[in-house]
Design goal:
Glutaredoxin
């Protein structure tokens, strides 16, 4: 195939004039650069083109690992006849949702408002004034599955634009007004107590829990870090075994199911069935970061080694397969390889029979239900007779360890799914937090070094005098960062400080948090906008507290600012954080399950953090003894800092000074009540254990 950069090719030059995606920073957009559709990136030129040509806009939003995005691309966007309709009647804009979460959030709200559900690809039709009037997700090229065909939709909208435009404009204006109202969050007329939302969330989780397979509600099922954390913390604190059971049952069923990559580690994005057996096979960095924290907290709460095993297997997968040479983390692995979803992860019975001994094959048949006819339930062509490794129960040890090594080696010879190599600030922040916490609690220097290396990458390549950038791709930073980026990076720098006690990370966290308040805080009504002063705003500047495909950026920001307030002893950080609660809590009560991260923040407001200030003594050994107790007994959301000698250097990176005349001690505060300094490891352990039962 001739490259688009080949200036001697006339046909390629014409294609380049029509399709402007070849120079895009997003690998996902570049996947569409050779299609016959005259794709435009979202920029001033494309928007002006719609105005000047008086055409509606077809906006397609997706991401590199999205299976149904690839299906629609192949069926419709590669189709010359459909492309001709698109080019004749529309200005066609392609957006990577991971680069532009603002556009994705705004227009996905239109998809949900018009259809009652969301998902990707998002297919939205806009007026030249950018107001949505028709939307959906995947459309087949011709009508099937009860879904209208994309070609028919194009023709009908083109006809209405010519013959009944006022009808379209009226519908667009009404929907736009509705969305503006949806994104307007103001201080409530009444206060909600944090324990009220926490209790409501726990009640909803108990009522919707799937007692057979774990998780909540019906298929499709997604992992929920906030649900697991709420249940683990309240189960232990309130001594309610059922809360702990719901969290553990969910984690165990997920680890046993096909959503978990039993060979290579890591988890796929979600399961299409209730049993966690049949996943959509994309692997996302942010999902795996949250799952590290879920399994790590489960290990802390139960001391069961299987939870630690999964924690380590996820991190080992990320460090092996999703880490750039510079130490940053890539975004995702595709669901598809060789044109078939899940092909990299599925096995024919013949493959297993040839590669394994009779004893090992019998083990897979017994514990993973592999069979000659296949156990993978799918209606897609190409999946017939294939098996997925989905166990009846969580398995560790022999002979599985040997079988796993054999199959992993065989799988390594296959063509891997596509890798989206762009680096996203917010997702890197999440993984840095996961590594830093795992490094501290598991006492693992490899995880600490990887977290610090990624932190240095963010500092060096994504932070500048102008602020934080969201994207690093092809050696360049781009796209001013959003609230979610500032929030997760602030938390990541704080967690690196708590893991290393290097004050440089604390200084970076403080600076990032201060800039976040400056750019995103609604200084009139409270709460945080998802876009900053540096972004161009459309018909609505969004301010939300609900969770969507990713967790609430506002709740993440609030948690980070509460932590900063303690570390820096600056109430302004806490005051900004509390406005998120004041503006968001009333609406959260009406849809608790969509606000679980706000409920997790409410849990922190209700009970406070476990706060531990370490004062180094005359030897490193007694300080290490206290740290070891904190690793074993302190909750995952404990705040840690190392006391500095007031006469030591003001250099933020200076190492802590030991006091040559005293023993090391911990100043421990529990439930907003501080205790006398504790120098005995035994006494510290007793205090922490008693606190967890209070």
């Amino acid at each position: 195939m001739v490259s688009l950069t080949d200036s001697d090719s006339t046909s390629d030059k014409v294609l380049s004039d029509l399709n402007r995606l070849s120079g895009a920073s997003s690998p996902y957009l570049r996947q569409h650069a050779l299609q016959p559709v005259a794709w435009q990136p979202w920029d001033e030129e494309a928007l002006l083109k719609a105005q000047l040509e008086d055409k509606p806009i077809f906006l397609s939003i997706g991401y590199a690992a999205c299976h149904w995005c690839h299906v629609m691309a192949h069926e419709s966007f590669d189709n010359p006849e459909i492309a001709s309709l698109m080019n004749r009647f529309f200005v066609n804009i392609k957006v990577d949702r991971e680069e532009r979460p603002d556009l994705d959030d705004l227009y996905m709200s239109a998809v949900v408002a018009l259809t009652g559900r969301g998902g990707w690809p998002a297919s939205i039709f806009l007026t030249p004034d950018l107001e949505p009037f028709y939307a959906g997700t995947y459309f087949p090229p011709t009508s099937r599955y009860g879904i209208p065909g994309f070609s028919q939709i194009l023709e009908e909208i083109a006809r209405l634009w010519r013959s009944d435009r006022s009808r379209i404009q009226t519908q667009a204006a009404a929907l736009t007004d509705r969305l503006k109202h949806h994104f307007t969050v103001v201080p409530a007329s009444h206060m909600v107590e944090p324990e009220t939302l926490v209790d409501q969330a726990l009640a909803v989780l108990a009522a919707t829990f799937d007692s057979q397979w774990g998780g909540w509600g019906d298929a499709p099922k997604f992992p929920s870090h906030a649900a697991v954390a709420l249940l683990l913390r309240n189960g232990k604190r309130r001594e309610i075994p059922h809360y702990l059971h719901m969290a553990e049952k969910t984690l165990e069923c997920m680890a046993a199911g096909g959503i978990h990559d039993h060979l290579g580690g890591g988890f796929h994005r979600y399961s299409v069935d209730a049993q966690w057996q049949v996943p959509h096979f994309e692997k996302m960095l942010y999902d795996n970061a949250h799952l590290v924290l879920s399994y790590l907290e489960a290990w802390q709460s139960t001391a069961k080694e299987k939870h630690r095993h999964i924690t380590e297997s996820i991190l080992n997968y990320v460090l092996r397969d999703l880490t750039s040479p510079e130490g940053a983390f890539y975004s995702s692995e595709d669901a598809d390889s060789e044109g078939l979803e899940g092909k990299f992860y599925l096995w024919s019975y013949e493959e297993l029979q040839k590669g394994l001994s009779a004893e090992h094959l019998a083990f897979l048949k017994k514990h993973f239900s592999v069979s000659e006819k296949g156990n993978f339930e799918s209606h897609e062509p190409g999946h017939e007779g294939l098996n997925i490794l989905s166990a009846k129960a969580w398995i560790i040890g022999e002979p599985w360890d040997t079988i796993r090594k054999i199959l992993l080696e065989k799988r390594s010879r296959r063509i891997r799914p596509g890798l989206d190599t762009k680096v996203i600030a917010s997702w890197n922040g999440l993984m840095i937090t996961a590594l830093a916490k795992a490094a501290f609690y598991l006492k693992n220097d490899v995880y600490r070094d990887a977290g610090e290396k990624a932190g240095h990458f963010v500092e060096t390549h994504l932070l500048s005098d102008e602020g934080l950038f969201r994207i690093w791709s092809d050696g360049k930073a781009s796209h001013p960062a959003y609230l979610e980026d500032y929030a997760t990076v602030t938390n990541a720098f704080l967690d690196l400080y708590q893991c290393t006690f290097n004050r440089r990370w604390l200084a970076l966290a403080k600076g990032t948090g201060e800039r976040m308040i400056h750019l995103f805080l609604d200084k009139k009504n409270g709460g945080f906008f998802t876009t900053g002063e540096q972004h161009k705003h459309l018909f609505a500047r969004m301010k939300t507290v609900h969770d969507a495909a990713e967790v609430s950026a506002a709740s993440t920001a609030a948690l980070g600012l509460m932590k900063l307030a303690w570390h820096c002893d600056e109430p302004a950080f806490e005051n900004a954080a509390l406005t998120v609660w004041q503006t968001g809590a009333p609406s959260a009560q009406n849809a608790v399950q969509g606000h679980l991260h706000l409920a997790l923040f409410a849990d922190t407001l209700q009970h406070g953090f476990t706060e531990a200030t370490l004062r180094p003594g005359c030897t490193a050994a007694d300080l290490e003894a206290l740290l070891e107790v904190l690793r074993q007994e302190a909750p995952l959301n404990t705040l840690l800092k190392l006391e500095r000698d007031p006469e030591s250097s003001d250099d933020a990176t200076a190492p802590p000074q030991t006091n040559q005349s005293t023993h090391s001690a911990v100043y421990l505060c529990l439930h907003r009540s501080c205790l006398p300094p504790i120098s005995s490891a035994k006494e510290l352990r007793r205090r922490l254990r008693n606190a967890s039962a209070d």
